[in-house]
Design goal:
With about 200 residues, the protein is α+β, with helices and mostly antiparallel strands. The chain contains four helices and six strands. Strands 1, 2, 3, 4, 5 and 6 form a six-stranded mixed sheet that branches.
Amino acid sequence: MCTKHGIEQFISIYQKVKSRKDGIFRWGDETEYTIVKFDHESKKVRVCLRSDEILKQLEAEAQINEEIGKHNEVLWAPEVGGYMIEGTPGQPYGALLASFNNVETNLIKRRQAVQKLLKEDEAILSMSFPALGTADFSFPSTFVDPKNSFGKSIFFPDEVLYQGNPRYLTLFKSILGRRGEKAEINVPIFKDEKTPNPFIVSF
């Protein structure tokens, strides 16, 4: 069904733009930032569920810029995780080689815009957080509830999803409804002479 809809959408867009002669090649990039919180006392780093709060501050700044006629060099959007923020250029880059000179500058401005809203014990990463799904990986603390949650996950609580929009929770529920079962990604166990056979882990 999804493939059929994708093909129909492609054909519809093609029919609308196939006769265009004035198209200019435009492009851009997006960077997903992960907010983390350092607990120096216990030497622990956790993802920080403050993306909605920070996004509202960034969007408020953008609104002020629009009201005074100032161009926004960066656009912000939520991501699936309540610890993530997506940043893109304020407008697409053009076809000239000179556009490439603007990419790094814009990336720096994006990072600086988020960093100035962070607390003293917080930082942002431009990579996936390696400890997702482990015990006590978020701040505030969250707990898995496979029986009563949308995702039915034994690793990833619903509370870690972005809460500012019901879209992501609804997406999880929709996937579960279509599949009839939760999505499972099982990594094979590397077995050596110390590995029990069968290898069983109780969650």
